[in-house]
Amino acid sequence: MLFESNQLTIQYIGQVGVILRKNDMAIAIDPYLTNSVDLLSGFPEGFWVRRYAPPVKPETLTDLDLVLCTHDHMDHMDPGTLRAIAEASPGCRFGAPKACLPALEAMGIARDRLQALGVHEPWQFTDELRIQPIPAWHEARVQDEEGWDHYLGYVLKWDSLCLYHAGDTLLTEELIEALSGFSVDVGFLPINGRDIFRNRLGVVGNMNALEAADLAAYLKFDTVVPVHFDMYANNSEGISPFVERLYQKYPGQKFHIFQPGESLLYKKTE
Q1: Out of 56, 131, 134, 168, which residue is the most buried by the measure of CB atoms under 10 Å away?
Q2: Which one of 3.30.420.40, 3.10.450.50, 3.90.960.10, 3.60.15.10 gives the CATH number of domain 7-257?
Q3: How many C-beta atoms lie closer than 10 Å to residue 174's C-beta?
């Protein structure tokens, strides 16, 4: 099915994961479709419990052309999910920060299917799609000695659309500057926040709901999508502060709260 240049289908698959479909191309960003996080050791009993089952089975994703991972945390770069996708979609490529590539190879994904991504240059995936990595602060910006970032977000310039997936990041002046040259149509922002008690357990955080709302309004996103708030109750601040902030301070700012597995046809209005 062919779409107009100013529209695409967005499917939310949980945590921060989305599948984007446009012009017979399908891209997944940070797909997490197992319960791997629930099995992590070193946390209080019951700390990680999924609130809903994966809405999609990764082995059914037979049409993916590209998977983008923002960093190597389990809920963003899950071995069980990615191995299944690599097998189900044998032509699929995988893009991730350079530091992630050894782990992706260890999952059994061939090196020639992998692309190291960094902020120094965009990746022209096709004539219609250019991917610009954006630095992320989770909770700090981490780079290797050659300047490759360990945490990334991505701006996708896809035909006439501009999409931003933040991955995991705080809101910083540097992030605002990095995004200031883009006119974002749809932005996916984490809103789970951070606090000292989660930090004590080694759970690094992100911008909170108010910051995410403020960022979307400041940069004039056409539509903002909150993510990273609905799967794990112990790593969330809920959705209410986000909605309240938009209604009180930014009337008219469009947003969409997805249910797991839900698809939405987004069409840019001129």
Answers
A1: 168
A2: 3.60.15.10
A3: 13
